[in-house]
Amino acid sequence: MRKALLRTVASLLLVALVFTFADPPRLLQALGHPDPGWLLAGFVASSCAVLSGALRWQQLARWLEMEAPTKLFLLAQWRGMAANTVMPGAVLGGDALRTLHLQRAGNPLGSAAVSVALDRISGLWVLVVISLSISALALACGLLPPQALPLPWPLVALLALAALAAPPALWLLSSASRHHLPRKLAGLLDAIHARPHPLRQYGIQLFGSAAVQTFFIIAFSCGGRAVGLELPLWLFFIAAGPIFILAATPVSVGGWGTREAASALVLGLLGAPKELAVATAVLYGLFAALQGLLGAATLFPWKKSKTPA
Questions:
Q1: Among 150, 117, 118, 125, which Cα is nearest to 135's?
Q2: Residue 308 has what pLDDT?
Q3: Global pTM value
C-alpha cells in the first residue's frame, strides 16, 4: 500500500514538473482547442489497437493450448486498460487482471500468466524493431537530425536486425540449456517448446504486434495533429519506441508523468515545441483513459428495461 501511494505521488509530481517545464499557459492553450476530427481519429485508432491486441493475445493463448471466447479476450483487454489507468505500476495491474480473466475461463493460472507475459513482451519487442528500423532508414536517407540519434545508420540497422532475430535466438538457446535450469523454470520451458510450429507462431506474433503498435502510433500522431503538431508520421514511429517503453515502466500510474517527460525529450529532439510534445502525450493518455472507461463500464451489470405491452 505504501509503495502504491508513493508511486501515485511520484507520478503526480512528475506530471506537475513536466507541465511546469512545458510552460503551463502555452500548454493549456495547446490543449484548449484541439481539432475534434483528429481527436475522433485518434480514439478510433486506439480502439483498433485494443481489438488487434485482444486478437493477438487470443492467438498466442491458443498456441499455448488455452481456450476462451473472443469476447473474453476483448473484455479482459479493455478491463486491463481500466486497471492500468487507475492503478500504480503502469501495465502490471492490467496484466494481472487479464491473467485472472483467462484463469477463470478454466485455464491454468500459470499458463495464463505466461500468455500475458509473452503477449506484453511481444508488443515491446516489435515496438523496438519498428523504431530502430525506421530510424536506420531515416539516417541512411539523411532525414533524421544528427542530434536526435548520433549513431551511424549501419549500426542502427544492425541493432534492428538483432532485435528481429532475438526471439529465434532465445528459442534455440533455451532449447539447449533449459535442462540445466531450476525444475519449475525448466518445466515451463519444456511446455512451451512442446508447442508445434514455433516459426509460424513467431511470424503471427510479429505481424499481430506490428498491427497493434501501428494503430497505437497512429493514435499518438492524431493527438499531435489535434494540437497542431505538424510532424510527419514516420517521425512518430521513431519516437514511439522510447516514449511507449518509458510509459510502460512500473514507476507511475497509467504512464502519466513518464510518458509526458519522454515525449518532451524525444519529440523535442525531433523539432517539436515542448508544449505541443507534452500536449500530444496528454491526449494520447486520454485516449487510453477513454478505453479504460469502456472497460470499466463492462464491469457493471447493465439490465435491459422491459418495454410495456
A1: 150
A2: 44
A3: 0.89
